[in-house]
Amino acid sequence: MFGKLFRTGLCSLLLISLSTFALAQDNDDPEIQRVAPFQVFDNLYYVGARWVSAWLLVTEEGLILFDTLYGDLTDITIDSIRELGFDPDDIRYVIVSHAHYDHIGGAKRMQDEFGAVVMMTETDWRMTEEPPVFREYPKPRRHLSVANGSTLNLGRTRLSFFETPGHTEGVLSTRFTVYDKGYPHVAFMFGGVGLNFSGVERTETYISSVKRLQSMNDVEVNIPNHPDSGDVFARYEMLKERKDGDPHPFVDPESFTAWLQQLLVMAEAKLVEEQAAAN
């Protein structure tokens, strides 16, 4: 079953850029994109849309939000947090995976309405000062810059950060612990996996980032910032049917390892094309 989900996710990954642009009208429609929020682990909830993710990490000292959606879709995240019984005023930090509109577009609203502190790599903070790659978005006020190897502690929750450039030059990836009925699992969000960029050097950088992540052999849970990249909805359907003693559908280290390998294969193929174009 997990193998089938993994293959589906790879196909979806290849279609992300198509979904982003060819289906932009549907992507931007909150009625089409709205999904009911749901709990995945004791401390982690999905509060995103159909095509782009947002995740809520709950600590005893407040909430941490991964990405913010954009435009009218940000209402989905805010409404979802409330529907789950949490208060958006308790959002302490917003972790922005990278400075593309679909992930950062609601960050300023989180600052203005709820006083959240926005965190991003310095490289992608600088990116907000440049013309946008795909489309305009409200520029958040500069808050905290996250360096490679830095950490964030909120209560007993600890996040570790990694700069994994490629998709943008300052992609931020995050490692943290999730709990299944109190049992801990290592979770990881690769902050930008799409290959919709150009250039030999940039592709080589992406490959280096993937290889670095492959050296982490203890990641058990993939937390994707586009749900299709990790078969989020299919896994949730399995989670709803889970019986006592069944494995958690999101705890799947083999699929994470295979996914990274496939990303590497696709990136290496892209590198060959980029080198040919450069010559």
Description:
This protein has eleven helices and twelve strands. It has helices at 2-14, 16-22, 24-28, 30-33, 74-83, 101-104, 107-114, 122-127, 200-214, 232-240, 253-278, and strands at residues 38-41, 44-46, 55-59, 62-66, 91-95, 117-120, 144-145, 151-154, 157-163, 172-180, 183-189, 221-222. The strands form two sheets. It has a seven-stranded mixed sheet with strand order 1-2-3-4-5-6-7. A five-stranded mixed sheet has the order 8-9-10-11-12, with no helix packed on it. α1 runs parallel beside α11 and α9 (200-214) runs antiparallel to α11 (253-278). The radius of gyration is 18 Å and the shape is globular. The model is unreliable at 6-22 (pLDDT under 50).
Which keywords apply here?
single chain, 279 residues, alpha/beta, Metallo-beta-lactamase, Chain A, seven-stranded mixed β-sheet, five-stranded mixed β-sheet, 11 helices
Encode the helix/strand succession as letters: HHHHEEEEHEHHEHEEEEEHEHH
Helix-strand category: alpha/beta
| Spans of at least 5 consecutive residues with low confidence | 6-22
Q: Please tell me how large the radius of gyration is.
A: 18 Å
Q: By CATH's scheme, which homologous superfamily applies?
A: Ribonuclease Z/Hydroxyacylglutathione hydrolase-like
Q: State the helicity in percent bands.
A: 25-40%
Strand order of the largest sheet: 1-2-3-4-5-6-7
Domains, number: 1
Number of strands: 12
CATH-defined fold name:
Metallo-beta-lactamase, Chain A
**What is the CATH-assigned architecture?**
4-Layer Sandwich
Average of the residue pLDDT scores: 93
- What characteristic shape results from the CA principal axes? globular
CATH class descriptor name: Alpha Beta
Largest sheet: 7 strands, mixed
How many H/I helices?
A: 11
Strand content bin: 15-25%
Quaternary structure:
single chain
Distance between the termini: 43 Å
